[in-house]
Write a structure and sequence with these properties.
Cytidine Deaminase, domain 2, 6-stranded mixed β-sheet, alpha/beta, globular, 13 strands
Length: 272
């Protein structure tokens, strides 16, 4: 039986990944992050270990102890931890994490951090691979996915904002922007997509458009753009009428429920 390590972050994706992989007959050994991973993941994996977010050495020793040769990352981490005022006291990093952070990081951008983690795993013979290969059914198909299609004005906002969103993503600032009447209302930074939607919605008040996509050349092992029912609830609360995502590069968690909820709120979801 194939065995796979799962480094599980927050949200529903680690659970959905584990369900999909186990359905394919794969044994899942999960390392969950304290304060981030949903506890119910225990029901969906073969073995579960808990580690602190900055316990790099412990995480790698755990995977090596289970003779794991390949692992995936699924789910995010709360980015504000990294820049908290007393991060060393709160996170209590082990020596391997400290060594990576201060001696090996090229920058503090998300991709650089995740690439450094992948390199640390590789030193110990663990290859970090893409989770996408196991959850192809969760990728957004091209076209309008909801009953309501974007209006003429919303389509114009998508066309206006798409290139800007690509540039923002390419500079590793964030994956999401909020637009109305060809004016950028909000750009995602460290706060994450949901908070960006809230901020943009407050400024736009109604009929706001959200664009969420990956940067050019995005490494599929890391931080794949994702939406789900929680995203739709944030869109509704913020007065967003349309969200545009990237076809075949965006995960839709609990896809059927997510699209049904968008239909209920008359929010257009289009994959381009």
């Amino acid at each position: 039986m194939e065995r796979l390590g799962l480094i599980a972050g927050n949200g529903r994706f680690p659970i959905l990944f584990a369900q999909s992989a186990k359905a394919k007959g794969i044994e899942i050994i999960a390392v969950a992050i304290e304060g981030e991973t949903l506890p119910e993941i225990e029901q969906y994996v073969d073995k579960l270990y808990w580690v602190g977010v900055a316990k790099m050495g412990k995480m790698i020793r755990t995977l090596k102890g289970e003779h794991i040769e390949k692992a995936v990352m699924a789910g995010g981490l709360t980015k504000s931890h990294i820049h908290s005022r007393f991060k060393h006291l709160k996170l209590r990093p082990d020596m391997r994490a400290i060594n990576m952070w201060y001696k090996k990081l090229r920058s503090k951008h998300d991709h650089s951090i995740l690439e450094a983690v992948a390199n640390e795993l590789a030193i110990d013979g663990i290859e970090l691979i893409s989770s996408i290969d196991y959850v192809q059914d969760l990728l957004a198909e091209k076209g309008c996915l909801t009953k309501r299609e974007p209006s003429e004005n919303e389509t114009a906002d998508i066309e206006f904002g798409w290139k800007i969103a690509k540039e923002v993503a390419g500079m590793e600032i964030g994956q999401c922007i909020v637009v109305k009447d060809k004016i950028v209302l909000a750009v995602e930074a460290i706060e994450g997509t949901n908070e960006t939607i809230k901020r943009g919605g407050k400024l736009g008040r109604s009929k706001v458009v959200v664009i969420k996509l990956s940067k050019k050349g995005q490494d599929p092992r890391f931080d794949v753009p994702t939406i789900g029912t929680e995203t739709i609830e944030y869109l509704k609360e913020a007065g967003v009428s349309t969200i545009a995502i990237e076809a075949k590069k965006t995960l839709i968690l609990d896809k059927e429920d997510t699209i049904k909820l968008a239909d209920k709120y008359k929010i257009a979801v289009i994959a381009i």
